[in-house]
Amino acid sequence: MFNEIHQKNIFEKAVNYAYNYMDNIPNRNVYPTEKAIEELSIFDEPLPEHPNDADEILRLLNEYGSPATVAQTGGRYFGFVCGGAVPASLAAKWLADVWDQNAAVYVMSPIASKLEKVCEGWLKDFFNLPKETVAGYVGGSSIATFCGLAAARYHILQKHGWDVNQKGLFDAPKLRVVLSNQAHGTVFKALSLVGVGREQMEIVPSDSQGRIDIKQVPELDSSTILILQAGNVNSGAFDDFALCDEANKVGAWVHIDGAFGLWAAASRKLANLTKDIEKADSWSVDGHKTLNTPYDSGVIMCRHREALVSAMHQSGAYLEPSGQRDGMFFTPDMSRRARSVELWATLKYLGRSGVEALVDGMCERASFFASELAKSGFRVLNDVVFNQVLVACDTPEETLSTLRNIQSSGITWCNGSSWMGEPVIRVSVSSWGTTFEDIKVSVNAFIDARESKI
Ligand SMILES: *Cc1c(COP(=O)(O)O)cnc(C)c1O
């Protein structure tokens, strides 16, 4: 049975199932039907005692797994900020999956190491970051932010004569953390992972769009980590990065959470949104959202190599630094898949102008979505500066019932959120595959959902 891995027929089967999935994406329910979800019970069985047929395993996935997927690679999924997958990027990942490389160190995979290095250079160039910036490739912005904050913690404490790797956090000099009340939930999680509790954070109010209120930012000093945001997860708003000047003057560290918004830097039209980002110390960004690489693809970029590498430090007798790029020195994990492959493929495929077209296209579609909804009597609660639209009906009850109807319609899918104390329907245009036609169909679904016709 273990020879099966060398038999191409199961791979052919997987490819055929995959093609079938791709072809049917435009016609299928955006969210799985109740029946598809109920039938997932087929997977509830005891751990198999004996080997099973590989064909049968693929058949089960195709027959029961595929209908219970969320069609986020199609054009009418607007939930969370998910992004689809650019085909060239997905195809590159398929190939790399067959390679099954471990990107921990150079000797495990020269190709993974090479593409990490190439992407590091390209990203630096793309976001116009300082030349000393280094990059680590992780599963997403949650981990990227964790890495940035760990580097910041190491750096600041080191400056104050405290080696946190040796002495730990107990009795360490005081570290200040300043962030807005609109910081993403994963930022609070990352802070707790690096040993900062809620009561230690200096939380700054935000304005009507969810931007940090610069007038209320406390005085910064050389013990401060200031966390800013490029792309509010609800409104899409960007903080004012001119705050970096203040931070740089006193030696505070600035981390920018740019999970989906940092890509605004691609667009000449949106250049004002990311103005001054290059003055920060570390940045987290995702490939798998705006850039539309497949999951999971996040990057930590840091201008202080020593701080990031020291914070992620690992040693072992069998781990001689190679003199080449050893990816694990920039990330918390050791074994990792070669996720630089699809990041490289996406940037190579799109080029600078392609990323600009992708980003501008999302923003144009989001604005179109917003204006069509407004024409149909919905309230749009945010300034649509990027890809996010916050929508409400006349009353909170109507908003919630409309949302429920949208979610069960199968035609489109959005999730709910709350904005300035009011329930909202949150629309995130983040797939390369979304067309204006998809938006027209979805707006009609919103109208029918409000009138409970679907
Ligand atoms: C999605 C998101 C994150 C978390 O990123 P993951 O890739 O899901 O780990 C952090 N911050 C913002 C603003 C986000 O939109």
Description:
- The chain has a seven-stranded mixed beta sheet, with helices on both faces.
- The longest helix has 36 residues, at 340-375.
- The termini are far apart.
- Helix 1 (8-24) packs parallel to helix 3, helix 4 runs antiparallel to helix 11 (340-375) and helix 12 (396-409) crosses helix 13 (436-450).
- It contains 13 helices and eleven strands.
- The protein is globular.
- The protein is of the alpha/beta class and 454 residues long.
- Pyridoxal-5'-phosphate (PLP) is lined by residues 81, 140-142, 184, 186, 231, 233, 257, 259-260, 286, 298.
Q: What is the strand and helix layout of this fold?
A:
Elements lengths: L7 H17 L9 H5 L15 H12 L21 H13 L10 H18 L6 E5 L2 H19 L4 H4 L8 E5 L4 H9 L7 E4 L19 E6 L13 H8 L2 E5 L24 E5 L11 E5 L2 H7 L28 H36 L3 E2 L7 E5 L3 H14 L5 E5 L2 E7 L7 H15 L4
Parallel strand pairs: 2-3, 2-4, 4-5, 5-6
Antiparallel strand pairs: 1-7, 6-7, 8-9, 9-11, 10-11
Helix pairs in contact: 1-3, 4-11, 5-11, 6-8, 6-10, 11-13, 12-13
The chain binds pyridoxal-5'-phosphate.
Oligomer: single chain
Would you count the extended β strands for me?
11
Enumerate the distinct ligands: pyridoxal-5'-phosphate
Shape: globular
Q: Please bin the fraction of helical residues.
A: 25-40%
Mean pLDDT: 96
Q: Strand order of the main beta sheet, please?
A: 1-7-6-5-4-2-3
Roughly what fraction of the amino acids lie in strands? 5-15%
Order of helices and strands: HHHHHEHHEHEEHEEEHHEEHEEH
- Rounded to the nearest angstrom, the distance between the terminal CA atoms is 49 Å
Q: What Rg do the Cα atoms give?
A: 23 Å
Main beta sheet strand tally, sense and closure: 7 strands, mixed
- Which structural class do the helices and strands define? alpha/beta
